[in-house]
Amino acid sequence: MSDVGGFDPTFDFRTDATGPDPDSSSPRLKAYHKLLWSKPLPSGDPFDLDDSKPGTYLHHLSSRGEFDLTSDSASPTWIGWSQRWWPLKLEVIPRIPESELEQFRTTAHQMGGKMLFPGKQKGGNTINQARVRKPIVDRLDLTLECIRLHYLGETSPLAQTLVRYGEFFALFEDFKGYVDFFLLQDLVSDDLSSVDFLMPFAGFGASGLPSTLEEYQGYRLRAVAFVEARNRRMDDYAAGR
Predict the structure, then answer these.
(1) What is the 3-state secondary structure (H, E, C) of 154-187?
(2) What is the count of structural domains for the chain?
(3) Given 42, 104, 106, 185, which residue has the most CB atoms within 10 angstroms?
(4) Tell me, what's the pLDDT at 2?
(5) What is the pLDDT of residues 1-28, one digit of tens each?
(6) Beta carbons within 8 Å of 178's beta carbon, 6+ residues apart
(7) Domain around 154
(8) Is residue 2 part of a domain?
């Protein structure tokens, strides 16, 4: 970590990004991913990450397999999405003070708002590519629900995609192992039987996007609270390493 200084989960990765996408161009974000996720798996096997493989963001190779991983935002704001994707955008975003929108953007680009997923295509879209579409629309809570159902052997909008990356999810053994590894406890119930959704959820039949200003504002506040809680959890974990 000496090349980027100490661990600060509230660092805004837009500020050191060398391109328009911090997920691919922020040196500090990559260093933080390596720090947090290079650790033993639930089995005790090491899961060390490196960035030495050309054309790959982060890479793992061991007896457990070979995995090419990429960073992805876990707390979408949808502020920059086109009206084609989110028809209510022009009715919602202009009614929110810019200071609140910028706070949301800033929080979304902190470490608690980032995840690692397999980044190499395997017979179809990657997880990142599949989850940007409706009804998941980049939401980590909905993605996590799909992952919970995957471990139960049940169906979801991401079921086929997650099955293609079954070797990756097998690393964590079960839903608890996945949640604990990636420090996602603040997005699930205490007994891990359900996901704490950031908007009211009645199934995957809806688009996943807010349908009113009030719904967006409720989502925004809960998403910020989740990222801040995960930041604290990450800070505690990093301090104890």
Answers:
(1) CCCCCHHHHHHCHHHHHCCCCHHHHHHHCCCHHH
(2) 1
(3) 104
(4) 43
(5) 445 568 999 999 999 999 999 999 999 9
(6) 147, 151, 169, 172, 184
(7) 13-239
(8) no
User: Which pLDDT score is estimated for 87?
Assistant: 87
Output the six-digit token pair for 222: 């809960």
For the chain, percent of residues with pLDDT exceeding 90: 90
**Exposure on the CB side of residue 227, measured as CA atoms within 13 A:** 29
Query: Does residue 3 belong to any structural domain of this protein?
Result: no
pLDDT digits (tens, 9 = 90+) for 163-203: 999 999 999 999 999 999 999 999 999 999 999 999 999 99
Q: Does residue 187 fall inside a structural domain?
A: yes
Q: Is residue 79 part of a domain?
A: yes
**Under the phi-then-psi rule, with left for phi > 0, alpha for psi from -120 to 50, and beta for the rest, what region is 227?**
alpha
Looking at this protein, which amino acid is placed at residue 147?
I
pLDDT band, residue 42 (cuts 50/70/90): very high
Q: How far apart are CA 155 and CA 171, in angstroms?
A: 20
Say how far apart CA 181 and CA 149 lie, in whole Å.
18
Beta strands in 24-140 (DSSP E): 39-40, 46-47, 58-62, 65-73, 114-118
Cis peptide before 135 (omega within 30 of 0): yes
37 contact partners, CB below 8 Å, separation of at least 6: 47, 49, 116, 181, 182
CA distance 204 to 108: 24
State whether residue 73 is helix, strand or coil.
strand
